[in-house]
Design brief:
The protein has about 210 residues and is mostly helical. Helix content is about 65%, strand content about 10%. It folds into two domains: about 70 residues, no CATH class; about 100 residues. It has eight helices and two strands, in the order ααααααααββ. A two-stranded antiparallel sheet has the order 1-2. A hairpin with a 2-residue loop joins strand 1 and strand 2. The chain starts with 7 loop residues before the first helix and ends with a strand.
Amino acid sequence: MLQHPPTRADLGEAHRLAGLAAYFAQRADDAERHFLAYLRIDLDGRLDAALYPPDVLAFFNDVASRHAAELRALRPRPKERAWWLTLLPPFGQLQNGDRATAYVLGGLLGSALAVNLFTYARLRSWCSNPSGPAGGSLICNVGGEHRPEAARMRSYNIASGIAVIVLYAYGVYDGVAGYRRRTRAQAIEPFAALSSDGVGVGVGSTF
């Protein structure tokens, strides 16, 4: 009969149960060794206060507190963040994890840019001076047959250009704000630990 190898979760649970058994057998060294092995596998591992007496909870938390530096070092380092992506919305929002904002902003910015480019291309095909003000210095071909359409198209071009600028500026502002907020959150991590000597609190830094 084929047997599957134990998973990391199975190994962690085995060490947790072995630690409990060793503690209740008054073998503190073995209990600490098994609890530490359990925490190395499950960095957020805890004992349920509703299931175990306070003394074993205090012992477990004391082990976690004394080895806190080692356990923090085992956590995956956060993905490197590129500040220059904040200048390229919606990629800055995606990097910050603000996916809903990224999709909405990307859709609006892309649509406005598409309208701006389309209207500019039509104006260039119709007029010899597409950058002139609407209805003013537009000089359109074939005796000005496209002059009314060009004036309207120029209005769309200006409006979409303004929309692109406003959306881009907002995207950069939002991206920079999110980048700073998440960078500060990663740099300082508060923690609390309960041990047999009391409660300890502090902060951990990520560099």
